[in-house]
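An example makes the point: we let one protein speak, the chain in one-letter code, the fold tokenised, and here it is:
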Amino acid sequence: MITIDPEDRLICLRAREVSADHHGAALPPISQASLHRKQSMAELLQGLSREHAAFVYARGTNPTVKVLEDTLAKLERAEACKCFASGMGAVSAVLFGLLKAGDHVLFINDIYGPTLELAARLEEFGVTWSRAFAQDIESIGAEIRNETRLIYMESPGSTLFRLLPIKKVCALARLRGVLTIIDNTVATPLLQKPLQLGADLSIHSCSKYIGGHSDVVGGAVMGPAALVEEIFYKGYMLLGAAMAPFDAWLLLRGLMTLPDRLSRHHEDALAVATFLKAHPKVRKIYHPAFCEEDAALFEKQMLGHSGLFSFALDAAGFAETLAVADRLRLFGKAVSWGGAESLVMTGHKADPGADKNLRVPGTLLRLSIGLEGADNLIGDLEQALS
């Protein structure tokens, strides 16, 4: 059983607390206004000079969204947070806001696919990038170039869920004058606090565990106030991926139950992974708790893992893998993850062929463990594998 920080539990619950002006509403009211009138032109002009903090136009700052931003900043122990219409809105604002022609980005570990697609698009604007899969700090250091501006990492990484020595990577980057960014979506702010390990920025897709009900899309960037403000003006405002007030309200609702949901996801995923590890038709489990190489990092960096992990089948190929997934009854066939329902997804969008040296095996299935109960899910997997 994971132990949620008591302070974090209160932060999640107290997101609903608002001033007396709102008549004791159980959740912050939805401020749907697209603009805010001022008492004078001087006040309006002053607001326009600081739209990251003043309520002027909804593309900038909104009262309901601001409550969410303040709450997420507290959870990540960050000075500031900016929310976006999607996780990719957050990623785009960071990369467009901080990079210029001639800069280089080093991506470490398995990275969310659309993030790499965006990096490829940035090549047309003179930004270069490279990938490294090493876990040791010496090999990572060898990948940093003179023109490297950002190190962008995921830990746990997408799909295979390997861990990185975050503290060491961030210390090395700081010595080299490089900013560090981590996608912390899988762990959530409750299970890992990368800013306290030295990362400059933490990015989240709020659509996953923070929302928790598969009914809202959103993103967030957290870090030092000055750096978040720079991203606000250079990336957020100009790209226009503004979070809607209703979406912020849904995310605030989701945060109220995040500690309890995450505890159940963690426990049930461990139970399901333990079952699969012993199954004769399963070749390997990809879960931080089952990776001997990452055991020390897991103990040091994380309070637990969420409900997301993968496993490779001892199957003939991609077609047989799809057949197993199709036999599952409780696992929905869908992208994304983090909701109350369990989901299954392949490691590839198309048959990768018979190459056995692929980093992501062709027989890999990713599971998002929901809230149906470990025994029910194990029973479903058992019949699908039989």
Notes: Residues 59 and 240 are 7 Å apart (CA to CA). The chain has two domains: 6-253, 258-385. DSSP finds 13 helices and twelve strands in the chain. The chain has a mean pLDDT of 94.
